[in-house]
Amino acid sequence: EHFLARIKAHDGHINALITCTENEALDDARRADAALADGTAGALTGIPLVHKDIFLTEGVRTTCASRMLDNFVAPFDATVVAKLKQAGVVSLGKANMDEFAMGSSNETSYYGASRNPWDAERIAGGSSGGSAAAVAAGFAPLATGTDTGGSVRQPAALTGLTGLKPTYGRCSRWGIVAFASSLDQAGGFARSAEDLALMLGAMAGFDPKDSTSAQQDVPDYLAELAQPLAGIKIGRPREFFAAGLDAATGAAVDAAIEQYRQLGAEIVDISLPNVGLSVPTYYVVAPAEASSNLARFDGVRYGHRADSPANLKDLYSRSRGEGFGREVQRRIMIGAYVLSHGYYDAYYLQAQKVRQLIAADFERAFANVDLIIGPTTPTPAYKLGEKNNDPVTMYLDDIYTVSANLAGLPALSAPCGMVEGLPVGMQLIGPQFAEGRLLAATHAYQ
Ligand code: GLN
């Protein structure tokens, strides 16, 4: 009731939620009370949370912040949603996001952008901006998100939260509306690494319904928080501190690095020579996969359908033209172009090769260091509208986050200071399945 009251009081302004499921939440909370009373409660029983509106939820609409899915109600829960439900969490609703998770500012949402609770004239980040805004505004202690190119880490950094993108395959993608299937991964937002450890333990695990989910045991992440920092080697890639990084943001990250040194970690200067190619590589691979994934929204099977079509082609083109916003249409066109005959070798195939080079950079680095540290974003949150009309400038801001997705690695953003009254984040990247190490290193810092 406390959290629902906060939502009612402030979400008219913050716009973190697309759908609030008040009645279902109160019913679930009563069930949680009963579990607490009869001794069957677990650590997450009764903990409120919001789900990014990209996770399918049985009986509750899933819009993906698109007109295309404005009235779509899924007939089943995403695996991550089902697992968290099983752990006893109480969902308060569905969080705002960039349309189909394409964006960095939440401004591509059909329902309008979420606002940053630290300064409502600024972006909450994207694409999981509503999830971040909800936790930062005190609407819920936890939120789910997805991270294809930074969509959990970037909004976490801009709203002062801890946000984790696990290893590709750690959490099931079943029931998550697909954006770029080789990059998409479910993640979470919380106020601390400790809360995230609890949440990830409930979300992760093999799922036979997702052929890319990892057949790997889920460790006790809470127990792993005790891993000592002394003796750990943390790499500081010089490419992450080059031109383009706001000086004050870089200084905040360097102060965190100094704190790690004092806590007993060894800081090592490293190089990731190909990470400078991450943004162009990502913006070929992600739109290519998106153009294929979004082909299913044809106005026939589900989603928005244009009125009185003249013929089949008119039905397709008007349904898609009306249902998708500008950024989604732009991505579909870029994707169709880079996959088309005559351009495939020059763009898509080339991007796949560079993707391997980027992954190899990390592999080489992790032969010598346990973790990598850098900034999450080049600057603190900017003003709503500032980069809205300049997609390329917005794409370039993904410079520090997309490489972990291209390499399939787990990465986390945690608050590391304030710049002109706004939070900024540091990013830790680990080798595959080192979520426990990432959370422990963050916990030691926090
Ligand atoms: N900002 C990136 C993009 O627009 C990442 C989005 C995401 O991780 N879903 O594609």
UniProtKB/TrEMBL annotation:
One of its GO terms (cellular component) is glutamyl-tRNA(Gln) amidotransferase complex. Residues 1-439 form the Amidase domain. Its EC number is 6.3.5.7. GO terms for biological process: translation. It is an enzyme of class 6 (ligase). It catalyses: L-glutamyl-tRNA(Gln) + L-glutamine + ATP + H2O = L-glutaminyl-tRNA(Gln) + L-glutamate + ADP + phosphate + H(+). GO terms for molecular function: ATP binding; glutaminyl-tRNA synthase (glutamine-hydrolyzing) activity; transferase activity. Pfam families: Amidase (PF01425). The active site is at K52 (charge relay system), S127 (charge relay system), S151 (acyl-ester intermediate). Heterotrimer of A, B and C subunits. PANTHER family: GLUTAMYL-TRNA(GLN) AMIDOTRANSFERASE SUBUNIT A, TRANSAMIDASE. Belongs to the amidase family. GatA subfamily. Allows the formation of correctly charged Gln-tRNA(Gln) through the transamidation of misacylated Glu-tRNA(Gln) in organisms which lack glutaminyl-tRNA synthetase. The reaction takes place in the presence of glutamine and ATP through an activated gamma-phospho-Glu-tRNA(Gln). This is Glutamyl-tRNA(Gln) amidotransferase subunit A. It comes from Oceanococcus atlanticus. The gene is gatA.
